[in-house]
Amino acid sequence: MDTSYLRTLKSKLLGTPAGRLVFVCNFEAENWWAEGYVGLPAPRFSAPTSVVGRMEELGVLLAGADDVLILKHPLDPGYREYLSGLGLPVPSVLVPENVRPDRSTTEDVLDSPELLRQLSALGAEGAHLLPMGTTVLEQKLTDRCGLPLAVPDAATFARVNSKIYGRRLTAAVGLRGIPGDCCESRDELAAVLRRRRPALTGGTRMVVKDAYGVSGKGLLLLDRPETADRLLRMVDRRAERTGDDRLHVVVEEWQDKSHDLNYQLTVAGDGGITLDFVKRAITENGVHKGHLMPVALTAGQRAELEHAAELVGGRLYDDGYTGIVGVDAILTTADVLYPVLEINARLNMSSYQGSVTEHCQPPGLVAFARHYPLRLPAPVGFDELAGALAPVLHRDGPERFIITCFGTVNADADRPPPFDGRLYALLVAEDQAGLTALDDAARAALAHLAPREH
């Protein structure tokens, strides 16, 4: 049985809770949307790391038992059995017959005639493709095999995921926006930095962000006028070298934050807008580390986010977008809520947690979705991992530790040892103290997997 979270999503996207979805979790989507746009003068487009690629396995948490998940590598049998033992629905998994490490999963699918045939059959039976976000690759896939998209086309996704679009939307609907500017050329950036120079001299910090930057990439902090001058010189040198003075960035005043917030809304096919949840995002140097849920908000703050969700969702619908939207917001140390820091009109990390939190987080309990960096001397089988984590996997009482992605653990196992891995998990406890104790116990258990010092 699909979770209520998934049935509701299907109703909004497909018009029926019983629809069938084919998931492809293309975490590299921003790289493709950025094509043709000019960001900060630094290397930007790069192939996703093996670990990021294996994060596609998070889709197993969202897909239902009758759905299909496309993965570059088969789902580990031990992990499948583990999820089933938790009572979670586990989808069918399809793997391309032609796989190359230097390609995305969608590119592998496009080079796999047998899998394309299976997807064509699924499309003929009424299934729809749900990517994390549609890029030119998923557009090509649906054109090739006739499997229709459950969400808009690549051009729409590229348009609405620009930070420039997000700032302009925020201003257009009248929401409180972080003071800043949009720049689409070298001259516009120079004018902004010139106008902001007195503020920089006075100690105000500014941050410059690529229109399609993600996870701390494509971001530069300006803490004094000299830093701004250096940036402009780099932009000038590139413009002279390339003959192209375009630049797609936003410049914003840095805010001292007490909380990073993330809320999800869904824009239905009929234009209906729902606020699905609000979580506290845990970040480090601009890089996402996890989510705490639920988050304590005042009635006024909750109402402000609900209002923002309606306005953001309505404008996205008017601009041709339907589907899941993740919005980053911040609460400053001065207790000012900025309801839109960034709009991510696609599936987000927290989107994949909806079904597992519904199933594993009873009312009144708190949860922490996070990942653990690993340093491993050799590949770790699921049974070995589960054995190491036995002190937290088999606890009495309300505390629970749920493994939410195993594929990332051995993603770099083809490299000389020791290699880096990553374990994703959901921790559930009665309160914050219980989460901290469970987290500490998990860290201690995972330490036994690290290389031995001689």
Automatic annotation (TrEMBL):
Q: Which PROSITE patterns match?
A: ATP_GRASP (PS50975)
InterPro entries, A to Z: ATP-grasp (IPR011761), PreAtp-grasp (IPR040754)
Question: Do you know which Gene3D superfamilies this protein is assigned to?
Answer: ATP-grasp fold, B domain (3.30.470.20)
Top-level taxonomic group: Bacteria
Does the keyword Iron belong to this entry? no
Q: Which residue intervals define the domain ATP-grasp in the entry?
A: 167-376
State the UniProt keywords alphabetically.
Answer: ATP-binding, Nucleotide-binding
| Listed name of the protein | ATP-grasp domain-containing protein
What is the species of this protein?
Plantactinospora alkalitolerans
Q: What is the lineage of its organism?
A: Bacteria, Bacillati, Actinomycetota, Actinomycetes, Micromonosporales
